[in-house]
Fold each of these.
Amino acid sequence: MKTLIRAAALGAALSLLAPASAADKGTAAEAVAMTQKAIAYIKENGREKAFAEFANPANATFHDRDLYVYVYDTQGVALSHGINPKMVGRNLLELRDGEGKYIVKSFIETASGPAGKGWVEYKWPNPLTKSVDPKAGYVERLGDLIVGSGIYK
């Protein structure tokens, strides 16, 4: 009987923890909203100011838990990256994940399609866990820019 009570208590405790860990991750709706806020910010403030704000980890509008903004041009050059500033200025058109998927090419193809936006699935280092996790990036095209944010699954 004690074992059953302990198991029930453990199950209850774990169920309380589950929502907290889910809350530590951004949602698909939040990634879309962050991307759209980033596009509006670029339009209102210009590229230079926007890219600096996207790279600023203190800016909670563009950094929320595991969500952040990234921007590429249609040639594959990283113009801003919310987590990895070393990527900025580099042509990453040939960048692949561990399974060989072209990440930036997929962003460009998706955002250059008829809808001008969409989701791309790939694997990427999670800034919170430091492990390589499945990720879905949401991208939208703004002129010659590909603006996005993504969720870890």
Note: The chain has four helices and seven strands.
Amino acid sequence: MKALLSCAILGASLCALAPAGATEKGTAAEAVAMTQKAVAYIKDHGKEKAFAEFANPANTTFHDRDLYVYVYDMKGVSVAHGVNPKMVGRNLLELRDGEGKYIVKSFIDVASSPAGKGWVEYKWPNPITKQVDLKAGYVERSGDLIVGSGIYK
């Protein structure tokens, strides 16, 4: 129940940040490209500068319509989030969607696979429609980090 409440609170925060009148959604290819740019940015500029840029809504490289970057460590702690700074520093390993799916654990499973990257589907509040929608998050492992972005289906 606590995880569901956390999800609801986080979702409300995301909805409040939605741009008025935005209707176009990001694509799977754009989510993959944004994630790969974020991984490269971390490698080129270091974690501190990268995380600040991921949180900066004026940075259109890492914020585009409903696309944004999020980063977790391999223990489930949110270390950067493109639209919800309240998540940063929190261990969200037990976070579940409304259907009970463990979101961050699923990210870790994908990042720990031999490929080290892939897609995770879960229900999440859409910042544009303000409804809980099916979301597909693309994640890639980069050292001890899981870097991702996602699309709403």
Note: The helical segments are 2-16, 28-45, 47-55, 103-112.
